[in-house]
Amino acid sequence: MALRAAISARVLSSSSARGARSMSSWWQGVQPAPKDPILGVTEAFLADPSPSKVNVGVGAYRDDNGKPVVLECVREAERRIAGTSNMEYLPMGGSIKMVDETLKLAYGENSELLKDKRIAAVQALSGTGACRLFADFQRRFCPDSQVYIPVPTWSNHHNIWRDAHVPQRTYHYYHPESKGLDFASLMDDIKNAPNGSFFLLHACAHNPTGVDPSEEQWREISYQFKVKGHFAFFDMAYQGFASGDPERDAKSIRIFLEDGHQIGCSQSYAKNMGLYGQRVGCLSVVCEDEKQAVAVKSQLQQLARPMYSNPPLHGALIVSHILGDPNLKKLWLKEVKVMAERIIGMRMALRENLEKLGSPLSWKHITNQIGMFCYSGMTPEQVDRLTNEYHIYLTRNGRI
Q1: Is 154 a catalytic residue?
Q2: Which residue ranges does the record assign to the Aminotransferase class I/classII large domain (predicted)?
């Protein structure tokens, strides 16, 4: 008996050791993820002890003191909301009121599509969540499709469609020599893509270049999409924040709608209402009729369920109050115009000062570009020098 007990003890001990080794090795193959090219800049900035450091890489609006700004319309909406609502879950599709007001912004107050109930739409986790939800929808219902993404684009676009397992192709967009739009190459890529391809388009204030097609160019793009039967998915993260006029900034989308396209659209209130941390957005898909819209919305909700179940409440209430109240909406339109005009003024000041300092280079692109981001044209080596010698932080692609 003693011998049997000893053998059993050794077996158990050996088994436990093997189990411990097995458990300790579960995550040994995990390597540190590469730093996000945008968020990594902020990390480096915060770690720099220099009192003269400047961060021009952050994708968020700042005042003249470099401080975050909360809009007065947002503060007033918060005052009205405080203590008036419960904390229950929203439906999977989010706040119906917020979605309805958001669709009016993108598609127009008197849109026939809205009257005919042809738009399937759900509240999403800001623009990122809306893009990801659509990417998963594309994968599920068009499993053999791929998506064309502009070069360059917001770096997270590639991550979103990659993790949704949608194959990616790229199309020409930016012309480095002119620091403007490479329209001829863009059109060639649209014509050469297989019929019925998916294209990711920036509705306005292209990130990171600040380069947008003209109205006439948008009309040509829309026409060629019609010829080829392509699907346009618009990422509209800066409506109102580009020109100061939400209607003007939605012109690209309206052109496609006039031409009869059934588009998809991601909207975000991070920039134009300063609701960065509230993660308020919307995903919409134009359908053939109301019946199809009901079906598409049900599938979008089904995709959202295992991802995050339902979207957050507070930010949706803020947006609903601002857009649903004429006075608050008027105040928002005034404030977003002030932000947009200040950005335009900063562009002018930057260009003027570079020219006054005697730079032999042309800086016209700084004022020709629009929106929150300026594609400066600086090389990665020049950016490194700015950071290492002058404590000025920006992404290595030269985006300010």
Answers
A1: yes
A2: 52-397
Question: In this structure, are residues 281 and 132 in contact, taking their beta carbons and an 8 Å threshold?
Answer: no
Residue numbers in the chain where pLDDT is lower than 50: 11
271 is catalytic: yes
Q: Residue 170 has what pLDDT?
A: 98
Q: Are strands 198-202 and 231-236 parallel, antiparallel or unpaired?
A: parallel
The yes-or-no answer on residue 27 being catalytic is no
**Which of these is catalytic: 179, 182, 212, 271?**
271
**Candidate list 136, 182, 189, 235, residue with the active-site label:** 235
Dihedral through CA 332, CA 333, CA 335, CA 336, nearest 10?
110
Amino acid at 263: I
pLDDT tens digits, 69-99:
999 999 999 999 998 888 999 999 999 999 9
171 to 136, 190, 240: CA distances (angstroms): 21, 8, 26
What's the confidence (pLDDT) of residue 66? 82
Q: How much is the pLDDT for 8?
A: 54
How confident is the model at residue 40, as a pLDDT? 83
Provide the pLDDT for residue 37.
77
Nearest C-alpha neighbor of 251 from the set 282, 278, 286, 212: 212
Amino acid at 223: Y
The pLDDT value recorded for residue 10 is 57
